[in-house]
């Protein structure tokens, strides 16, 4: 008879903000015939202190440098094993509804409070350690699962990636852009993923995503639909610089230990096509072209772990612009690199990273902007775990953006002395409760 169990926080461990853990199955498989049900969660709340170039020039408005922010995330799902040893399960991530326009459930405009939860991740997996595992659904792909050098286990768990935390509260004009591996543009889409078994420390994998859509977006489409149709292949004038089709990712990872030092190295490649132009052209700053260039990005990453220290590095380069958007003809390729150091000792964790990105940014062929947008950021964090379920943290962020001739405050070429060079600082103190 099949047995049903409710997993405790002690057996599951604590889930962090980037919940796409770097494995495609349960950390510990249930015994054959058992199913283990999860209902984990995370609540973060913090007080923020922010100073930025754009905090008091918004049409006469001024932002309060001190504020509070927080979020709730729920992680329902289950892990199970069949009588003949096949492991399978479901994992999901529900978040406090988003407040940005066009994403998730909107804020209640009269009260400013959020009105519900939105599905961020929702996927199933099946397989065995001997044959590998398949994921399918709204999930992280190989780009994250077989990579390293990007971490979320210090400070508020989000840092400059702005998946929540104090970085999300920094005015967007002053927020440095970074091509982080864990990105909603990639993990909120419906895809199929395969990760091979571990063979002498090597793992390989690939994934395929027909269109950049989530679950419900793929239900209803017609030839008369707007350019937001999930299964759109081509459209008059295209469908913008962020809509992908036929995204394929492949990766290879190697992990081993040498004299007490753990080493992980990984290489990944992501390729995607833009929604095609079926008729006419697209005009940008008076220049007409026949569509965006294909996206092709290489990712090289590694980490070394020894006696509580972790040192990681992540480098990405290729034919892509900020936010995993497509390039126009005449725009430069992107280069991103990040270096991170973390030290764990007892209940304490301290960490810091630096990232730098060189990209096309707002430049288009024939525009007056500088050809390169430079973004860099520093993140420092400290954590103290009072228990397995309760932690306190402090986060400090510094960010800088520059693109010659481009006004970051108005997002245009409008003359504003110094606004092609903006910066921000943020500090937060908060608590995280996990179960």
Structural notes for this entry:
By secondary structure, this protein is mainly beta. It is 3% helix and 48% strand. It contains 3 helices and 21 strands. It has a 16-stranded antiparallel beta barrel with strand order 2-3-4-5-6-7-8-10-11-15-16-17-18-19-20-21. The longest helix is centred in the N-terminal third of the chain and has 4 residues. The protein is globular. It starts with a strand and ends with a strand. 39% of the residues are buried. The N terminus is likely disordered.
Secondary structure elements and their pairing?
Elements: E1 3-6, H1 9-12, E2 34-52, E3 66-81, E4 87-96, E5 117-128, E6 132-138, H2 142-145, H3 184-187, E7 190-195, E8 202-211, E9 234-235, E10 244-258, E11 261-274, E12 276-277, E13 282-284, E14 287-289, E15 295-306, E16 309-319, E17 334-345, E18 348-359, E19 373-385, E20 390-402, E21 421-434
Parallel strand pairs: 1-2, 9-12
Antiparallel strand pairs: 2-3, 2-21, 3-4, 4-5, 5-6, 6-7, 7-8, 8-10, 10-11, 11-15, 13-14, 15-16, 16-17, 17-18, 18-19, 19-20, 20-21
Question: What is the gyration radius calculated from CA atoms?
Answer: 22 Å
* Residue share in helix: under 10%
* Low-confidence residue ranges: 1-23, 100-114, 284-289
Specify the overall morphology. Answer: globular
Oligomer class: single chain
Across the major sheet, the strand order is 2-3-4-5-6-7-8-10-11-15-16-17-18-19-20-21
**In DSSP terms, counting alpha (H) and pi (I) runs of 4 or more, how many helices?**
3
What is the number of strand segments? 21
Could you tell me the mean pLDDT? 85
The N- to C-terminal Cα distance equals 29 Å
SS content category: mainly beta
Order of helices and strands: EHEEEEEHHEEEEEEEEEEEEEEE
State the major sheet: 16 strands, antiparallel, barrel
Strand content: over 45%
């Amino acid at each position: 008879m099949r047995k049903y169990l409710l997993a405790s926080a002690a057996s599951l461990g604590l889930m962090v903000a980037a919940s796409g853990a770097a494995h495609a199955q349960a950390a510990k498989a249930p015994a054959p015939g058992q199913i283990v049900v999860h209902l984990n969660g995370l609540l973060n709340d913090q007080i923020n202190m922010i100073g930025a170039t754009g905090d008091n020039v918004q049409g006469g408005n001024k932002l309060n440098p001190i504020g509070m922010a927080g979020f709730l995330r729920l992680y329902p799902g289950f892990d199970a094993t069949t009588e003949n040893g096949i492991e399978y399960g479901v994992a999901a991530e529900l978040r406090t509804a988003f407040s940005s326009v066009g994403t998730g459930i909107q804020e209640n405009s009269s009260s400013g409070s959020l009105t519900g939860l939105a599905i961020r991740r929702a996927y199933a997996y099946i397989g065995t350690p001997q044959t590998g595992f398949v994921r399918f659904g709204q999930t992280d792909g190989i780009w994250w699962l077989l990579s390293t050098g990007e971490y979320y286990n210090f400070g508020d768990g989000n840092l400059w990636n702005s998946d929540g935390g104090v970085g999300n509260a920094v005015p967007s004009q002053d927020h440095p852009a970074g091509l982080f591996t864990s990105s909603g543009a990639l993990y909120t889409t419906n895809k199929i993923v395969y990760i091979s078994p571990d063979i002498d420390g090597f793992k390989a994998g690939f994934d395929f995503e027909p269109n950049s859509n989530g679950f419900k977006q793929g239900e209803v489409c017609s030839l008369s639909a707007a350019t937001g149709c999930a299964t759109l292949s081509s459209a008059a004038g295209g469908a913008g610089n962020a809509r992908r089709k036929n995204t394929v990712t492949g990766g290879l990872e190697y992990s081993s230990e040498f004299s007490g030092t753990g080493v992980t190295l990984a290489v990944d490649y992501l390729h995607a096509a833009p929604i095609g132009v079926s008729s006419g052209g697209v005009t940008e700053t008076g220049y007409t072209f026949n569509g965006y260039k294909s996206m092709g990005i290489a990712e090289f990453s590694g980490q070394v772990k020894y006696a509580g220290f972790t040192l990681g590095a992540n480098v990405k380069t290729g034919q892509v612009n900020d936010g995993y958007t497509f390039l126009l003809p005449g725009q430069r390729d992107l280069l991103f690199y990040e270096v991170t150091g973390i030290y764990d000792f007892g209940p304490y964790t301290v960490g810091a990273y630096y990232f730098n990105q060189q990209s096309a940014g707002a430049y288009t062929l024939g525009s007056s902007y500088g050809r390169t947008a430079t973004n860099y950021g520093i993140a420092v964090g400290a954590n103290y775990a009072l228990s397995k379920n309760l932690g306190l943290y402090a986060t400090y962020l510094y960010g800088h953006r520059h693109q010659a001739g481009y006004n970051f405050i108005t997002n245009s070429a409008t003359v504003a002395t110094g606004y092609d060079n903006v910066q921000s600082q943020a500090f937060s103190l908060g608590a995280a409760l996990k179960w």
